[in-house]
Design a protein that fits this description.
- Two copies of one chain form a homodimer.
- With 335 residues, the first copy, chain A, is an alpha/beta fold.
- Chain A has three domains: 45 residues, 434 Repressor (Amino-terminal Domain) (Orthogonal Bundle); 132 residues, 3-Layer(aba) Sandwich (Rossmann fold), CATH 3.40.50.2300; 129 residues, Response regulator (Rossmann fold).
- Chain A is 44% helix and 15% strand.
- Chain A is built from twelve helices and twelve strands.
- A six-stranded parallel beta sheet of chain A has the order 2-1-3-4-5-11, with helices on both faces. A four-stranded parallel beta sheet of chain A has the order 7-6-8-9, sandwiched between helices. Chain A has a two-stranded antiparallel sheet with strand order 10-12.
- In chain A, strand 8, helix 11 and strand 9 form a beta-alpha-beta unit.
- In chain A, helix 1 crosses helix 2, helix 5 packs parallel to helix 12 and helix 8 packs parallel to helix 9.
- The longest helix of chain A is centred in the N-terminal third of the chain and has 16 residues.
- Chains A and B meet through helix 4, helix 5, strand 2, helix 6 and helix 11 of A and helix 4, helix 5, strand 2, helix 6 and helix 11 of B.
- Chain A binds a DNA duplex (30 and 30 nucleotides) through helix 1, helix 2 and helix 4.
Chain lengths: 335, 335
DNA sequence: TATCTTATTGAAACCGATTTCAGAAACCGA
DNA sequence: TCGGTTTCTGAAATCGGTTTCAATAAGATA
């Protein structure tokens, strides 16, 4: 039979009130002696208070919800570890919810989480207009952090990556190596991140007096297959280098170009963006732009918990920088 | 201000008891008319009952705990999706806990989860003797499923992969292709799964009258680097094929052998084991043995929830079969 | 018509903690 | 010695549901 606070009170010959006080460290008005007596009983009986009963009155569950498209995506896996590690350190649990990019699933999950009285919510949203939707279904005072989204003003907490800078740096690297004919495999251009990466590419060209050429652009969809598909095209038009808007497409292009007899990086240099290193594989072949997923998760979680504890009041927008990671897939163009 | 069951009762002009009955479908003794009245009020006020208060009396949280070494490991990522999908379908939440293979972290997590009154627990344990440890810290009647572990009798629920069969099939495939000099990169031999895979290798040789040679064995640690390291050795002793006890080592060996000028599969065939396909990359190069992680997770979760609902009483041990996945890394040996 | 079921509803207890508030004891200054 | 603080403790209310049990009304039976 599970012990309750009343049992402990009876055994220690005090009231439940006192037991509660001792457990919660509100001992300023409890004598050293009774305190020790209670602690001894707790120790001996190995008593653990019922967290649900606690939650009912304290209104905190020490649990946060994490809603994201698919944990199998390496970005989100890494992100989730950043979040979980930080949360665990401060005694919080994380409930994981995969939405598979489906709006209904996302809304349903968030709504269910609300009923569960989680203390906070971290969301990588797939909704058209996440802020208004999410605010509609959550309680006024639940802290929320949106990842991979940028808000105006201080509407909501946001943590996101500087995609523009990523595209810019990748392209600049190729330019610095001496490339002038630089292809660009874009992401789906109805998605904000893809547009920004593309803008980074364009601006890097402009800033270095290289004219933008439409035929150098191949529109992809962030999939490996898009990279594969682009290969034949790029081989035929003869670029000396390619900036792929994500690593998956970069790897696809690399794979197919190699099969077509194109030497990487001698004939064509390739830069990716994301830095998704397959687990355990240390030697990185691909030159790419690092996106600090783990750090972003950690920051999102710390933002959330700070707000939870009232340490900060206003919402923040935090942007993460892109950095170049040198691999073996880029080199000077051949003369 | 959040509505409570009393508010609804007042508005609908009934007692909280009746509201509760209607919400829980215990309507056999509620007239159609009052039922509709209550439902209408719930609908109009958008009332959502407080799940914590419910849990306090029903003793169920509709939440299960998932404890595993590291979600970044593709096995566990896939496993977690199998679990989460199934749990979500039945209205359960999943709390994710990474132990980083540390015993203290695992024990601490399980103990904390117990206090939280989760309904069930799924564990991929890193403990020496998981069953006795886990049973010590959990309540008598919490359903538990162990993954990647095999129990005697019906001590506890287990879901695991037939590692022996995996090693056997991989080796048999090479033998069927005509190979006789078959190297084997083992896993860490203090780990059960590694021993079983190795035994599968040995028995496949024996059953086909190929003598076991000690010099064909390279002991690894399931890491990419171990594969890299083994390459020089295998090139020097001249095997025609290699069975690597996991995909990571297979990929490492492949990488390094290719660098050393060895043609795969013409000069040396390689078989892995695990079938960890990098996300989004469809064309599989490596011939390997599939381990059905997603299915295993799903089954573990269904086992847990069935037990939770009292649908099954006895504990079960469920074994999953290995299957061969043909890639481009194996071929007949050269004459 | 009197009695016995059966259908319908609600008052009150309960789950197991925290928190408010009041009372008792000890201490203190005049 | 006496009123006023301060220290220590516990009774009871509370959080928001579910469940038990009793009460009432309606219908059935004899």
């Amino acid at each position: 039979m599970k012990l309750t606070i009343k049992d402990i009170a009876r055994i220690a010959n005090v009231s439940p009130t006192t037991v509660s006080r001792v457990m919660n460290g509100k001992t300023e008005y409890v004598t050293q002696e009774t305190q020790e007596r209670v602690l001894k009983v707790i120790e001996e009986t190995n008593y653990q208070p019922n967290q649900i009963a606690r939650s009912l009155v304290t209104r905190e569950t020490r649990t946060i919800g994490l809603v994201l498209p698919d944990i199998r995506n390496p970005f989100f896996t890494e992100l989730s570890r950043g979040i979980e590690d930080y949360a665990n350190q401060l005694g919080y649990f994380v409930i994981l919810c995969n939405t598979d990019h489906k709006s209904e699933k996302e809304i349903q999950y968030i709504s269910l989480l609300k009923d569960k009285y989680i203390d906070g919510l971290i969301v990588v949203s797939s909704l058209e207009n996440p802020i208004s939707h999410i605010k509609k279904i959550t309680t006024e005072n639940t802290p929320i952090v949106l990842i991979d989204h940028k808000a105006n003003d201080e509407e909501i907490n946001c943590v996101y990556f500087n995609n523009y800078q990523g595209g810019y740096l990748a392209t600049k690297h190729l330019i610095d190596l001496g490339h002038k004919n630089i292809g660009c495999i874009t992401g789906p251009l109805h998605v904000q991140s893809a547009v920004e990466r593309f803008n980074g590419y364009k601006d890097a060209l402009r800033d270095n007096n290289i004219s933008f050429k439409d035929e150098f652009i191949f529109q992809g969809n962030y999939r490996y297959e898009d990279g594969i598909e682009s290969a034949k095209y790029y081989k035929s038009i003869g670029v000396t280098s390619i900036f792929a808007s994500n690593d998956l497409m970069a790897l696809g292009a690399n794979q197919k170009l190699a099969e077509l007899g194109v030497k990487i990086p001698e004939d064509i240099s390739i830069v990716g963006l994301d830095n998704i290193t397959p687990i355990g594989i240390s030697d990185s072949f691909l030159t790419t732009i690092n996106q600090p997923f783990y750090e972003m998760g950690k920051t999102a979680c710390s933002l959330l918990l700070d707000q939870l504890k009232g340490l900060i009041q206003t919402n923040k927008n935090i942007q993460f920088d892109a950095t170049l990671v040198l691999g073996k897939s880029t080199a000077h163009p051949k003369k």
